[in-house]
């Protein structure tokens, strides 16, 4: 059911914000759908299977979330002009467990409350087993532009280790359905699962490239406290993911994807070209404004971060009572904001302007170049850009730039 929410300051019952909106700042919308058929052993997201939904109903979820959309419209209209959404992202969970009509109503609610830019990127995450021709066609008709399919692996024993229940063949079916409906396609992969070899990972990468997606995400498996995987490791049933093997897997991904015409633009993301980058995720990395709707969803408006109560029942109860569903909020100080900027912006291909670093960080540049962690040519032009080795050691680079 996800990790514990962070601590923060209390939120007024009406959710009001004492900030001024920059009308030129990009605004994005995240819509969290917290339902899954099966809980994957590695997953730490705020998701629920049917037997965990005491006090909440999946068939009423769209109506509940739309109450928060109206609440957000009221809060934002009090502090500045309403900005149309440049990106909308349905995440989860498995958004496609809801009927396409529910997702369409949610998108229509966003459109009515804020507007959606004509060229907006509208993404929906999907499990391969939930995508049919009819589903993809209905989503496209509603205004969805992009389907992000949770492939994870093409190797059955790796999928089993991850508790993924879809058949590998269904990934192709889902991709073809999305293509037939005119949707862009992103495939999401995970590497470093228990028992996964380098050749298994090569098989998955080659299968991914053959499907010719527009965008590929590849994330190293992380053992999150409180998950089934963490318990299995603690009991000695499976081994902890091997850091060296995961590094080899990352380098293999970068080689194979690069030779197939995909360009890295963020440490864990590759795209055919700049037009097919995830604009929604780029907004996160670049510090834009967004409102996250749904239980446990996080938001960022004009420097204030806030997050909703976790359980769908508590979320619904707050909204039914006319209260904000936010559990707490915080406003990072200048030092925390500067650290976050370095942490996020060094991860993207364009990098971070050296001029934004404090003296200690600037003095670290020469050593980082000598260690092969940042590109010397980019530094000459005033930017910190990670080399591939630097991407593998991104946390160490950030520490050097901020200590």
From TrEMBL:
<keyword id="KW-0349">Heme</keyword>
<keyword id="KW-0479">Metal-binding</keyword>
<comment type="function">
    <text>Probably acts as a heme chaperone, transferring heme to an unknown acceptor. Binds one molecule of heme per monomer, possibly covalently. Binds 1 [4Fe-4S] cluster. The cluster is coordinated with 3 cysteines and an exchangeable S-adenosyl-L-methionine.</text>
</comment>
<keyword id="KW-0004">4Fe-4S</keyword>
<keyword id="KW-0963">Cytoplasm</keyword>
<dbReference type="InterPro" id="IPR058240">
    <property type="entry name" value="rSAM_sf"/>
</dbReference>
<dbReference type="InterPro" id="IPR007197">
    <property type="entry name" value="rSAM"/>
</dbReference>
<dbReference type="InterPro" id="IPR013785">
    <property type="entry name" value="Aldolase_TIM"/>
</dbReference>
<comment type="similarity">
    <text>Belongs to the anaerobic coproporphyrinogen-III oxidase family. HemW subfamily.</text>
</comment>
<dbReference type="InterPro" id="IPR004559">
    <property type="entry name" value="HemW-like"/>
</dbReference>
<dbReference type="InterPro" id="IPR034505">
    <property type="entry name" value="Coproporphyrinogen-III_oxidase"/>
</dbReference>
<keyword id="KW-0408">Iron</keyword>
<keyword id="KW-0411">Iron-sulfur</keyword>
<protein>
    <recommendedName>
        <fullName>Heme chaperone HemW</fullName>
    </recommendedName>
</protein>
<dbReference type="InterPro" id="IPR006638">
    <property type="entry name" value="Elp3/MiaA/NifB-like_rSAM"/>
</dbReference>
<dbReference type="Pfam" id="PF04055">
    <property type="entry name" value="Radical_SAM"/>
</dbReference>
<keyword id="KW-0143">Chaperone</keyword>
<keyword id="KW-0949">S-adenosyl-L-methionine</keyword>
<feature type="domain" description="Radical SAM core">
    <location>
        <begin position="21"/>
        <end position="263"/>
    </location>
</feature>
């Amino acid at each position: 059911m996800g990790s514990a929410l962070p601590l923060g300051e209390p939120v007024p019952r009406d959710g009001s914000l004492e900030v001024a909106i920059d009308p030129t700042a990009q605004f994005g919308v995240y819509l969290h759908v917290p339902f899954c058929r099966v809980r994957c052993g590695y997953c730490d997201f705020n998701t629920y299977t049917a037997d965990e939904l005491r006090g909440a109903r999946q068939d009423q979820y769209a109506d509940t979330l739309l109450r928060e959309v109206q609440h957000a419209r009221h809060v934002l209209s009090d502090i500045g002009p309403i900005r149309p959404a440049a990106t909308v992202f349905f995440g989860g969970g498995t958004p496609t467990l809801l009927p396409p009509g529910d997702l369409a109503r949610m998108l229509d609610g966003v459109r009515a409350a804020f507007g959606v830019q004509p060229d907006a990127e509208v993404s929906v995450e999907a499990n391969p087993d939930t995508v049919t021709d009819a589903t993809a066609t209905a989503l496209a008709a509603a205004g969805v532009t992009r389907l992000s399919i949770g492939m994870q692996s093409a190797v059955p024993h790796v999928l089993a280790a991850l508790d993924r229940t879809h058949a590998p063949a269904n990934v192709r079916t889902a991709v073809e359905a999305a293509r037939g409906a005119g949707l862009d396609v992103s495939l999401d992969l995970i590497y470093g699962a228990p028992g996964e070899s380098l050749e298994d990972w090569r098989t998955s990468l080659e299968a991914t490239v053959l499907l010719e997606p527009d965008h590929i995400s590849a994330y190293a498996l992380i053992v999150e406290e409180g998950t089934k995987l963490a318990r299995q490791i603690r009991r000695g049933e499976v081994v902890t993911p091997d850091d060296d093997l995961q590094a080899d897997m990352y380098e293999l991904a970068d080689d194979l994807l690069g030779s197939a015409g995909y360009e890295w633009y963020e440490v864990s993301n590759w795209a055919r070209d700049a037009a097919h980058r995830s604009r929604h995720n780029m907004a996160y990395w670049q510090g834009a404004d967004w409102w996250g709707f749904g239980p446990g969803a996080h938001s960022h408006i004009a420097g204030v971060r806030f997050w909703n109560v976790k359980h769908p029942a508590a979320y619904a109860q707050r909204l039914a009572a006319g209260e904000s569903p936010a559990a707490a909020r915080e406003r990072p100080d200048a030092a925390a904001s500067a650290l976050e900027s370095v942490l996020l912006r060094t991860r993207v291909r364009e990098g971070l302007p050296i001029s934004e670093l404090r003296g200690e960080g600037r003095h670290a540049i020469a050593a980082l170049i000598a260690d092969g962690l940042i590109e010397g040519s980019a530094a000459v032009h005033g930017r910190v850009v990670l080399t591939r080795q630097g991407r593998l050691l991104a946390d160490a680079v950030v520490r050097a730039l901020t200590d």
